[in-house]
């Protein structure tokens, strides 16, 4: 005899692979060797010196908000986000990524910066005026605090040196057409719409004279018919320039 009991998914934060029953582990321990790897990796990268790490630890111990965060890491998080202290709530969504080693709080392999050191870190991140994207990547590789990226974007966007050195997409150079020596030797043609009516325009490159013909539709056969009428009156040009729209790239137009 079996008894089935429905458990909502929201009440199963960590489901067992086979039975789907949640695991009754409120604060699973992470091996100390893994915690050591985070700080040691930062040391090996050479991005932060040991003296600076010591300063991070000292300032973290003085930061009241990070001390509340430290307490949650060591003693467990409340079950609901609304039960968390407002100062710590920004960290709740990734609480499983936060660890503590030698009084330094880490988000994965990134140091959570105390508020007293954030101004200094902002200046170091912006140093060199590499632009927004490189500054963001530089910060993400080592540091974290709530709102860090938006603050970096704001600072860099207001920096005159960063704005001046920012890469701009080069503007496409205009390629002028050669002006033919005789009228109607080279013409340009296109379709346009005016007051919900379609028209064909053919313009001479030499004299700038143009012909406009109203079209009942924009089929390739119709465009060919009206182009023939214009060419019959003014002659067949040596070169016809178009935007390669479907009518002009059609087999019917190319062969007429």
UniProtKB/TrEMBL annotation:
Organism field: Paramuricea clavata (Red gorgonian)
Protein name: Retrotransposon-like family member retr-1
SUPFAM superfamilies with a match to the protein in the record: Ribonuclease H-like
GO function terms (MF aspect): nucleic acid binding
InterPro entries attached to this UniProt entry: Integrase_cat-core, Integrase_H2C2, Retrovirus_Pol_polyprotein, RNaseH-like_sf, RNaseH_sf
Biological process according to GO: DNA integration
Chain segments annotated as transmembrane: none
Gene3D superfamilies from the UniProt entry: 1.10.340.70, Ribonuclease H-like superfamily/Ribonuclease H
Pfam families: Integrase_H2C2
Domain of life of the source: Eukaryota
């Amino acid at each position: 005899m079996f008894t089935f009991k429905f458990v909502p998914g929201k009440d199963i934060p960590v489901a067992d692979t086979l039975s789907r029953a949640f695991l009754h582990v409120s604060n699973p321990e992470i091996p100390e060797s893994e915690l050591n790897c985070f700080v040691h990796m930062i040391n090996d990268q050479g991005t932060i010196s040991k003296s600076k790490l010591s300063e991070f630890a000292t300032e973290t111990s003085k930061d009241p908000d990070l001390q509340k965060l430290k307490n949650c890491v060591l003693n467990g998080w409340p079950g609901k986000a609304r039960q968390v202290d407002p100062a710590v709530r920004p960290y709740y969504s990734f609480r499983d990524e936060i660890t503590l080693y030698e009084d330094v709080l880490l988000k994965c392999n990134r140091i959570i910066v105390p508020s007293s050191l954030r101004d200094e870190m902002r200046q170091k991140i912006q140093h060199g005026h590499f632009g927004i994207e490189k500054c963001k990547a530089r910060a993400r590789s080592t540091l974290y605090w709530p709102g860090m990226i938006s603050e970096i974007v704001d600072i860099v966007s207001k920096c005159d040196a960063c704005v001046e050195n920012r890469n701009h997409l080069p503007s496409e150079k205009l390629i002028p057409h050669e002006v033919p020596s005789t009228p109607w030797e080279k013409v340009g043609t296109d379709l346009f719409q005016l007051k919900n009516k379609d028209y064909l325009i053919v313009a001479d490159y030499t004299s700038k004279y143009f012909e406009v013909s109203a079209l009942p539709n924009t089929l390739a056969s119709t465009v060919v018919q009206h182009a023939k009428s214009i060419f019959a009156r003014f002659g067949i040009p040596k070169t016809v320039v178009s935007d390669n729209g479907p009518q002009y790239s059609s087999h019917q137009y190319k062969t007429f």
